[in-house]
Structures are given as C-alpha cells and as structure tokens.
Amino acid sequence: MISQSLHDLWFGFGVAFQLHNLMWSFFGVLVGNLIGVLPGMGALSAISILLPLTYVMQPVPAILMLAGIFYGSQYGGAIGAILLNLPSHPPHAVTCLDGYPMTRQGKGGTALGITMICSFFAASVGIIVMIFASPLLVEIAFKFGPTEIFSIMLLGLLAGATMSRGSPLKGVAMTLFGLLCGCVGTDVNTGTIRFSFGLIDLSDGLELVAISMGLFGVADFLMSANRMAAISTNTKLRVRDMRPSKAELKEAFLPMVRGTLVGTLFGAMPGTGPTITTFVSYALERKISRTPEKFGTGMIAGVASPEASSHSKTQVDFIPTMSLGIPGDAVMALILGALLIQGIQPGPQLITEHPDIFWGLIASFWIGNLLLMVLNVPLIGVWVKLLQVPYRYLFPSALFFIAVGVYSTQNSLFQIWEVLAFGVIGAILLWLEFSVAPILLGFVLGPMVEENFRRALLLSRGDMAIFVERPISAWFVAASFLLIALQVGAHVRRVIRRRKAGQVVQPA
After folding, report:
1. From residue 289, how far is each of 255, 283, 294 by CA, in Å?
2. Which end of the chain has fewer CB atoms < 10 Å from its terminal CB, N or C?
3. Residue 229 binned pLDDT confidence (cut-offs 50, 70, 90)
4. What is residue 283's DSSP assignment?
C-alpha cells in the first residue's frame, strides 16, 4: 500500500510540474499571499472573485490555483496579524495575542520567520497524513455525530474561556458575550429571527470578518490614536534577521508539533473550521506552559502552535472535501463548487476516476509551500517596512482597507457599521483590561454548540444521558469537568498563598 501511494505521488509530481499547472499554482500562491495581507480580504473573498475564471480553465490548473490561494492566504493573514494586529483571516486572531507584542519588542521578523517554518512543517505533516492516513481519518470522522461534536466544542469553549490573561472570570464573561453575539440572526431549526432589534440586516447574523476586524484592528487603532510615530522604530529590516536563533527554534519546536497534531485531528472533522483549531491549540499551550501568565506578552509558543495548527488543518481539510464531498468550511465549499463546475463529483471514486486531480493536488501542496517560502524571503523587507510608516498615515490607510475588505464580503455598508461598533466595544473592553479573544471564540462556536446540542437531544428524545452514554462524548465531557476542577483548584491555591502572605484577597 505504501509503495503504491509513493508511486501515485510520483505521478502527481509529474502532473504538478507541467508548466501550465506550475504557473497557475504560483499565481494562486502569489494572489493568496498578497490578498491575505489586506485587512478583511481573506481566502474566501479571493476565491469568490476568481471562481468565474475556472469556467474557462482545465480542471487540474483550476483546482491547483484555488488551493494555492487557500494556503497562500493563510500565511498572508499571519503577516497582518503579527505586524499590525490586523487578523485579515479570523483564525489569525489568536496569532495577534503574542505575535503583535513580539513586533512591538522589535521581533517582528523573528515572529514571521517562526511562522514560515511552522507553516512549512505543519503543511508537510498534513500532506503526509493526506497520503497515508486518509482512510483512517475518514473512518474517525464518521464516528463524530452531533453528540460528539457538541462535547468537543464544549471542551473548546471552556479551554478558550480561561486562556486569556488575568482573571478567568473575565474570560468566561467575554466568552458568554461572544455566545450571545452568535445567537443574533435566524434560528436554523425554527426559522425565528432572534435579537435583531427590527433590523433586517441582522437577520443573517453578525459577520465574522466584521467582528474580528473591529475587536482586533479598529480597537487597537482607537487605543493608539494619539501615537504619531511608527510602532517600532528599531525594527530590523534585514532578511537574515528573520532567521530565529537556536534557542528560539528550540522554544518553538514542541508547540509546533502539538499545534500540528491538533490541526490534523480537527482537519478530519467536517464543520469545525480553522478558527476553532487555532483557539484550541493556543489554549492547550497556555495550559501546559510553566509560565502561562506570560502568554499575551510575546511568547513564541503563542505564535508557533496556532500557526502550525492552522496550516496543518488547511491541508487535512481537503480529506473530507475530496474523499467524502463534505466541505469543512466556507472556503472548502467554494473549492467543492469549483469541482462540480468542472463536472467532477467529489467522493470515494475521485482518486480512481481522476487521479491527475487528486495526486496532482497533493504534489502541488509541497511545491506551493516551497514557492511560498521562496516568495516571502525577498518580500519580508516590504512587510516589515510597514512598521516604518507613521501612524498618522497608517491609521487611515488601514481603516480604508478594512472598510473595503469588509464591504466586499456581503456588499453591504451595514457591515462597516458593525466593524465600527465592535471597534468601540473592543477599545472599551481593552481599557477595562478584558481580553477580546474569547469573544471571537464564543461567537464562532456558539451557533454550532447550540445546533449540535439540539440535534443530539432530538435523536435521544430529550434524554441528557446520551452525552455520557456514547464513549467518545463521555471522554470529552469528563475532560471538561476536569478542566473546571483544575481552574477551581488553581484559584483556591492562589487564595491560600495570598492569605499566608498576609495580603488582602481581591475578587477575581
């Protein structure tokens, strides 16, 4: 079986290295990288714009181009998150937590170098998993019904709620606020419009891109409105400064491996999305760290783990899409649509009926990620020079691109008002020392938690015991209770230490 897979992979490299296929793969990586940097213009916008182009293209170059845009925008989104605190793609909101503080310390190039290494390593692991472990991961994915998905998302919510710096209660409060925001719009089960306050624009709910841009981009600009100088005047511009030191590589290695494993596991489960993956990997790193209080101040692990999980999931996401015809997120749904446009039906027969597409796509992942590394080495000076732009120019320019990017998602001016509203809310919360990252996690997971909870109860006729009767679900529920117990135990230990030290215990 292994020898056959290697033979098929060699055939895929032959397809991917054909000149016209290589050209379109490079075009996709380049466009994805550039658009990923622009605020609000993620892979979804880029693929939506270029999808009509695939009507007149051959199937193989069309899919290679769209795939290149997908993983190219992943790295481009990290650039904006690290250098400007602008998560162009919502999964990179977690990268802002430690990537942007590294930039303010003059280590923006190092953060981008770590991101590049983690992205290539995680993508390579994801490709290997696609080649050898696709049948196993597909079988595992079939075991996850509404009960299991609810349980794992419950664990993700609890982990993410306490991942922020400061009081865990503040993190829980922000997660609950995000859950409330996720309830806005039409209920998928009953068709009832909830919390829209009579505004027809809210019938489809709040926009994820608008919330992430407002909470992370606009809020930071409002907090720094009087700063007229560059973010970091001593930022190094040399390409060699992007090379991490041996100590930094050692610090990033284990988080990179753990993030890759998290992304691989989540990639096999349709519907989970990359945003959940990055939040879970960041929360995992913070929980197992000996210095969790330093997260949010420029920790390399806080950049390496989420970026690795995002890139490994990006590759493994193609498994359920290509082999089952089940897209993992909106971007995968567009790529699935591109296949259908070409008259190709995704499913178990795709590998045998269209081996040039399947194996050519897998080979192009390695080629595209190598192109991405080569492309960004000369461009690193351009990205870091963004930090030399005075704030009086950078501020209005970034707001302009945010407005254009958010407007392009739905062609609605109402989305721009959403960005402004959440920008003001985010600035107030930051001023009050609340972390805004759990809001995004609650918003993303909330609707899926509710939907799968109701589906599970519908299947069990209202019997709550179903969540502990199914083995996989029971393990995740037990892990959730263990996490709560650990948080309570940690709080009790802090109270005891303060009392022994004779300090006045302040409320959490």
Report:
1. 10, 10, 9
2. N
3. very low
4. H
| Amino acid identity, position 402 | I
Which residue shows structure tokens 């998150």?
A: 81
- Are residues 448 and 149 in contact, defined by beta-carbon separation less than 8 angstroms? yes
Instruction: Please tell me the distance from the alpha carbon of residue 322 to that of residue 221, in angstroms, as a whole number.
Output: 41
d(CA 335, CA 259): 25
Question: Which residue is it, tokens 């997660």?
Answer: 175
The pair of structure tokens assigned to 201 is 């624009």
Look up residue 202 and give its DSSP letter: G
Between β-strands 193-194 and 185-186, what pairing exists: parallel, antiparallel or unpaired? antiparallel
Which of 305, 302, 301 is closest to 260 using CA atoms?
Answer: 305
Give the amino acid at 112: L
Looking at 328-413, list the stretches that DSSP marks H as alpha helix, in order from N- to C-terminal side.
Answer: 330-341, 350-353, 355-385, 391-410
The confidence band for 505, taking pLDDT boundaries of 50, 70 and 90, is: very low
The token pair at 328 is 């993992």
**Residue 497: CB atoms within 10 Å:** 11
Predicted confidence (pLDDT) at residue 317 exceeds the cutoff of 70? yes
Angstrom distance (rounded) from CA 47 to CA 388: 31
**Per-residue CA distances from 238 to 117, 242, 243, 382 (Å):** 18, 8, 10, 10
The token duo for 124 is: 């390579």
The token duo for 197 is: 């306050």
Q: How many Cβ atoms are within 10 Å of 141's Cβ, its own excluded? A: 19
Q: Which residue intervals of 411-503 are DSSP H helices?
A: 414-431, 437-459, 466-469, 471-500
Q: Specify burial of residue 383 (Cβ count, 10 A radius: 0-12, 13-18, 19+).
A: buried
- Residue 190 dihedral angles phi and psi, to the nearest 5°: -110, -15
How confident is the model over 139-168, as pLDDT tens digits? 666 677 788 878 877 877 777 666 555 677
CA distance 94 to 81: 9
Please report, for the chain, the start and end positions of each structural domain, with discontinuous segments joined by +: 1-495
DSSP symbol at 434: -
The pTM of this model reads 0.65
Reported as a single tens digit per residue, the pLDDT across 259-302 is 888 888 776 665 566 677 887 888 888 878 888 878 888 888 88
Tens of pLDDT, residues 385-432: 665 666 677 677 777 877 877 777 677 788 888 888 988 998 898 888
